[in-house]
Design goal:
Length: about 140
Amino acid sequence: MDHTLVDRRRDARVIQGSRAEVRATLRPGCPVQLVDLSAGGALVEAERPLRPGARVLLHIVSPHQAVAVSALILRCAVWAVDPETGARYRGALRFDQPCELSRALATRDGSMVPGHADTGPPVAGKPLPDGETASQSARQGRAK
């Protein structure tokens, strides 16, 4: 029996390392914790169940930006049960439109930053004249 897992994700995920800096709320009025975020959707954790098939508005507030994206709840399951606080639920959301905040958070955190292509060995350029700085050289180039 083959148990190969297939990754169905279309977009790269941003795993929130500093969750305290990013707040999220599902409208109407359900605070959630972002588990991960991509341009196409999010995985959220909540104290109450989320109804699959329901349409919601996800508000995400980071120190640098705030966005609101409409989404469809795809699935929800009990994630953890605590004797004192009760059940915690995880729900998968699919955004109606791409959310660019995920890219901003990824590059700001330094994770998921696209690599650069190998350009080969370094090539020597022309040296600057004695005593001239790069900014002086650039200004002279614009003046010509």
